[in-house]
Amino acid sequence: MIIRSLKVTNFRNYDNFNITLGSKMNIFIGNNASGKTNILESIAILGLTKSFRNGLDADVIKFGRKKAVIEGRVLNNKQIKDLKIEFLEKDKNIFVNNKKVKKYASYISNLNIIIFTPNDLDIIKGSPSIRRNLLNMALSQISYSYLVTYNEYNKILKTRNEYLKILFTNGIADKAYLDVLTDKLVEKAVLIYWERFKYLSLINSYISDIYNNITEDKRLLKIEYSPNISISSYEEEELRKVLINTYKKNYRRELSAGMTLFGPHRDDFSFIMDNNIDMKIYASEGQQKCAVLAYKLASIPIFKENNGTNPVLLLDDIFSELDLTKRNKLLKYVSRDIQSIITTTDLKNISKKTLDSAVIFKVNEGKVERS
């Protein structure tokens, strides 16, 4: 998968720019706060329809303007697609080949992206919701059925939570309806659990080798999946039985809480080194950063296997996060058959061979120019 061109209008600090990207490594160089991250953000939005930053959609519109537009021409499995997302003050419109797309789920996968930012340290140190979002972002790009199922699960979950509150406050409410909702929730949860388990198992088949290669630390790194129910098998019928029994046993508890206390919406996973060292507690920040980077790089072959093409790799200010040895090992890794888009404040200590093969852009005061 390759982004051939990128055009933005009235986006963040940019009036407009229109650039042609290289098919391999692209490096955007500029001072801090010059707008380099905004470029990566525009690409992430083009792929996922939403920003990796917190805030409202309308926040991306340049101050004083009424509309922001992001456009990209993407080559995906020998097929060219023109993607466009426009942001209005209270609305967002999405287009593929100039045709408006009504359902976001049918848009996702036109542009697959993997992004690493300095804030990704929160993936290990932060709350479980951050790790669940990471899972959902990858799986939604890889599997349309997962994305649809996950959206349906959340709708049923919301209805079930609302009805639990009704049952708690109204003794004559019909519990049979709750049972119907529970059965529907279980049906969706089974697929979500299985897809997450399968995906993280695949991550584990790559992550340790990548981590060892970048860091020269030969210890084993793995991801440990932690659902909030006791699961001995991820086979469909076994999962169904465990979930149904869990909801039955905890009916009174959920009734009192007025919410669904069990299910994939409360999943978590951990980064474990040498089988028993939780990196959230015992690893240094440098080790944590490299572990997250290895996790994201481990997803590349999974994208390739499922979608038939590599995703686009976005690396924000990655050079400041790594020492010289790790930086060069990473550059060697990402110089393979994948389009990468990298931001940095300088080109020091990057080999001439790497720079000669990269397309370099200078970013300054809302302007982007090819060097």
Would you spell out the secondary-structure blueprint of this structure?
Elements: E1 2-11, E2 14-20, E3 25-29, H1 36-48, E4 67-76, E5 79-88, E6 92-96, E7 99-101, E8 113-116, H2 122-125, H3 128-142, H4 144-169, H5 175-204, H6 207-215, E9 221-226, H7 236-249, H8 251-257, E10 268-273, E11 277-278, H9 279-282, H10 285-298, H11 300-307, E12 312-315, H12 324-334, E13 340-344, H13 352-357, E14 359-364, E15 367-370
Parallel strand pairs: 3-13, 3-14, 8-12, 12-13
Antiparallel strand pairs: 1-2, 1-4, 4-5, 5-6, 6-7, 9-10, 10-11, 14-15
Helix pairs in contact: 3-4, 4-5, 4-8, 5-7, 6-10
Written account of the structure:
The protein is α/β, with parallel strands linked by helices and 371 residues long. It folds into two domains: 1-112 and 309-371, P-loop containing nucleotide triphosphate hydrolases (Rossmann fold, 3-Layer(aba) Sandwich), CATH 3.40.50.300; 127-307, Glutathione S-transferase Yfyf (Class Pi), Chain A, domain 2 (Up-down Bundle), CATH 1.20.1050. The chain is 43% helix and 23% strand. It is built from 13 helices and 15 strands. It has helices at 36-48, 122-125, 128-142, 144-169, 175-204, 207-215, 236-249, 251-257, 279-282, 285-298, 300-307, 324-334, 352-357; strands spanning 2-11, 14-20, 25-29, 67-76, 79-88, 92-96, 99-101, 113-116, 221-226, 268-273, 277-278, 312-315, 340-344, 359-364, 367-370. The strands form three sheets. A six-stranded antiparallel beta sheet has the order 2-1-4-5-6-7, covered by helices on one side. Strands 8-12-13-3-14-15 form a six-stranded mixed beta sheet, sandwiched between helices. Helix 12 links the parallel strand 12 (312-315) and strand 13. The two termini are 24 Å apart.
